[in-house]
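User: Good morning. I'm curious how SLL would be positioned relative to this chain. Could you predict the structure with it bound?
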Amino acid sequence: MSQDRVRVRGLTIHRPIIYGNTATLLTPAERELLPSPDHTHRWTVAVRSAASDDEGTRVGGKDDLSYFIKRVTFKLHETYTNSTRNIDKPPFEVTETGWGEFEIQIRIHFIPESGEKAILLYHHLKLHPWSATGTDSDVPPPPDVAAALGPVHSWQYDEIVFFDPFQQFLNTLTAHPPTPLPKTRRRPVPFHTANPASLAESRGGVPEFWAGMEKDEVERLERARKKVIAEQETWRTKLIEKEKELERLKRELGES
Ligand code: SLL
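Assistant: Good morning! Here's the predicted structure, ligand included:
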């Protein structure tokens, strides 16, 4: 057996990726030009590197992933013709128009030398804006509101982990180190737009994954925990005051 087909036991190596979609609402004029004028949105579903390029025109996609990914298969809703789309070269993405949200199956096939099995991911195609109120609602906002909010982004960060890789595959991977995520936040647009502090914070911009997002999430949870504790304390104090008052009133009644 060639040295290349030897597995490097006990070693793991990972590659960060993102997968998800971007969607824009079509204008009435754009819709008229479509073969199906009932389509309301243009969307792109993609598998990309987590790092974005500096222009900030799209989420992720700075690194070419074809050094380890051979094909990405996107399985769309059966209302689409040729609903299984095989993409054999970068960019690993599909752009379509449509009217409805649905689950997309994303199968990532690795280069044959890797000896790795394909992996399957699921992405819920998102067309309608993240609720500005933070409440779950099946009713999308009216078109003027949706248009004002700008393109919708729904992206998931993930890490593909290879255990005991073949030596040759490991060489290929180490020859292509992923671009590290930026240490600081370069874009004002947050990913978590479900509860935007303002319309300005939630509208029209391209978000970016950056290294501090995990820390941010931990801090958000910690802030929420402290807020709950403070709230409990306030109500406990109020309860004690009321109980004292009740005692006082009872005593007064007894004395009269
Ligand atoms: C829904 N369960 O009812 C989903 C189905 C189907 C989306 C969504 C276009 C198809 C076409 C399209 O948007 N299909 O006309 O080619 O919301």
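Residues 193-197 have pLDDT under 50 and may be disordered. The longest strand covers residues 12-25.
Let me know if you'd like a different ligand tried.
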